[in-house]
Amino acid sequence: MSQKIDTVVFPVAGMGTRFLPATKAVPKEMLPVVDKPLIQWAVEEAAAAGCTRFVFVTSPEKGAIMSHFGDAPHYQEMLEARGKTRELALLKAGLPKNAEIFETYQDAPLGLGHAIWCAREATGDKPFAVILPDDMVQHQTGCLAQMAAHYETVGGNLVAVENVPSEETYRYGVLNPGAETDDLVEVKGLVEKPAPEDAPSTLAIIGRYILDAKIMDTLSAFKKGAGGEIQITDAMAELIGHVPMHGFRFAGTRYDCGNRDGFLEANLAFALAQGGDELKQRLRQLLD
Ligand code: G1P
Questions:
Q1: What is the enclosing helix (H) or strand (E) of 116?
Q2: Domain membership flag for residue 1
Q3: Is the pLDDT of residue 1 over 80?
Q4: Could you tell me if residue 283 is inside a domain?
Q5: How far is the CA of 188 from the centre of ligand 1 (A)?
Q6: Which of 138, 149, 199, 200 is deepest in the core (most CB within 10 A)?
Q7: How far apart are CA 254 and CA 257, in angstroms?
Q8: 76 Cα to the center of ligand 1, angstroms
Q9: DSSP state of 157
């Protein structure tokens, strides 16, 4: 029934003011978690899910992102001359061999729905994935690969969800949940950034989506929602009843790298996962 997901969209035009001054000259998506920038972790997750077409919705001020995925002749020549094959492989920045790259600008900060709409020429008439690189999920099987496996059966619109503390619903798109089977939750409605007293549940969307191509038509109405922005949550809500809509309870731990503490926690968690006995010991000493 459903098609394979080969295209992924990264909405990365935002300003990253929470990380100033670090993000004055460096895009927030280029901040490293351990040894790779956030955007590379996102690209690797998409590649592991089978994506080969990578669409960056960016802005002219954030050229470093495209440079990261482009050629680096100065490094290449030097590393080739020195026979450094391991480092040469690292220059690919996580892209698969057959990767196609697309860059498009979001010319005004009109919201996540608008950013996704900016990718419409590259996504065409097939379903596509969206990854918000701020949200990192730690698990052996990447979050998007888990979703792609389920998408084959459900189709339509599929979002990754997890329960959040009720006082935090105002930061997320929140589900009005219907029937549940295993890890999938039918979605009866969606609200973007509800106050705790207005939230239909505490089941919140985190930054992974697989979207039906019809979403682009819905977004092209440019309807403004929460915060005066064009919200992807509202566009998905409009499509309920026309295409299937499910939440997916992913396996793994999510880190919100959009704020300082979450970003630091992700760094520690990913560093420790890479086998850091010595680091563990030093952390214990620091805590003491
Ligand atoms: C966006 C979405 C929201 C979602 C969140 C996940 O919000 O609008 O529905 O729950 O990402 O991180 P933002 O974090 O851009 O405010």
A1: helix 112-117
A2: no
A3: no
A4: no
A5: 19
A6: 199
A7: 9
A8: 38
A9: E
